[in-house]
Design a protein that fits this description.
The complex is a heterodimer of chains A (260) and B (236). Chain A is an alpha/beta fold. Helices cover 40% and strands 26% of the residues of chain A. In chain A, strands 6-7-8-3-9-10 form a 6-stranded mixed β-sheet, with helices on both faces. In chain A, a hairpin with a 2-residue loop joins strand 1 (4-15) and strand 2. Chain A starts with a strand and ends in a 6-residue tail after the last helix. Chain B has helices spanning 8-14, 18-56, 65-79, 83-89, 91-98, 104-128, 132-140, 145-156, 158-179, 186-196, 201-232.
Amino acid sequence: MSYVEIRDLHKTYDTRGEALEVLKGIDLSVERGEIYGIIGFSGAGKSTLARCINRLETPDGGSVKVGGVDILALSKSELLQERRKIGMVFQNFNLFDSRTVYRNIAYPLEVSGFPKDKIRERVLETAELVGLSDKLGAYPGGLSGGQKQRVGIARALVNKPELLLSDEATSALDPQTTIQILDLLKEINKKAGITILMITHELDAIRYSCNRMAVLEEGKIIEEGTVAGIFNNPQSRTGDLFAKVFAEFQNISLTEGAGI
Amino acid sequence: MSLLDSSLWEVIVASFSPDIWKELITPIGETLYMTVISSLIVLVFGVLLGIFLTVTSPDGLLPLTVPYVTAGWIINVLRSLPQMVMIILMIPVARLIFGKSYGTNACIIAIAASCIPMYARIVESSLLEIGKGKIEAAKSIGSTNAQIIAKVILPETLPGLIRGFTVAVISVISMTALAGMFGAGGIGDIAVRFGYQRFQHDRLFACVYILVILVQITQGIGNLISNRILRKRNLL
């Protein structure tokens, strides 16, 4: 069985009496230790899909299993425990401005009730991993976008999760910083063996980091497979479109050395 | 000294005479006492009520329609009463609690009844200003609702809460002055008894100075603290 297994997932939003079906039966399998990309235009349901995995959104139907645990069957307190094993990084970082970098990273451990000395040890270790050891006393307000996302990643990693949900983690960053953050994610994946589900609308990010990917369009997965397979031989309209955009992009940026 | 038989300048000069200020020491103490005690009560209950409103609102951490609507309705009713009407309404309540319907303590009840709902609304709107993303992040980390309130929402919105509290304290000060008319003592009492009933405008002016200074100091402290926090967080 795959590490993350999603079967026939449905989600409909009810906005003022008008039903909006965002996920229309998603099937997805992510293997342990891989970086799996989910790409789609905005409004395709990518973020909703990610939020169904840690139940920030409650799906209307289907099943979500992470490491064999049926996420949708968990009680409230079990869900809190399970969420601590699933890290999440966000496009807008969502750091706590009232806390220093140190205390941002320490937050998940505080919540889990770790003793102070253990927290210190873990925070220092994680900060070193993401390259923030010299910024621990700073407040997020004074950091650059890339540094903020490093804090976000450290905060998601400090609880030693097995799964990391990356919701457009690099979409608010400039190209150079994007590469650095993607490198960091790859390094984490390699070193700690953390499975990463990368939600993005950026082709680059997927091609640069992922082993396998799925193309999401209007709440359905219209294509699924290895990254190379989809780019070289797209079967769907969106996949085709992405591949075309990518081909053009490739001609511009790769030759000019964006570092990919 | 009165404006009826003296020039404005003479009254102003007289308003700084040591005799007047000596007599004002006790009233100033009473006003400060009422302001401090009332403000603390308003702070505690206003924050609690504000949190309750935020948490139980339809988009809150724990949506509870009936308690939310009921609390909102009670707050709106209390807020629609002018401060003077509130003081009159609270007379029997004060008698029930303190055994007498006038005096400094009796007035604190009226002030609390009037200012708690106001500050609760300010707290509510401050708390709602927190980005949804931060709460989502806290949830994704596995925080309980209590942890989200205590460790995320309150610290994140602290500067706004302080600025709102400044507004509430100023409102409390103005209400202590009004309460002076109803036997609460303090600066308002002097202003009414001497400034209004006996045309002693020099004393009235002295009362005005004190109130202006009190409000300025309050606003200044509020701005100072909230800006200092924002600057420390690199948000200013």
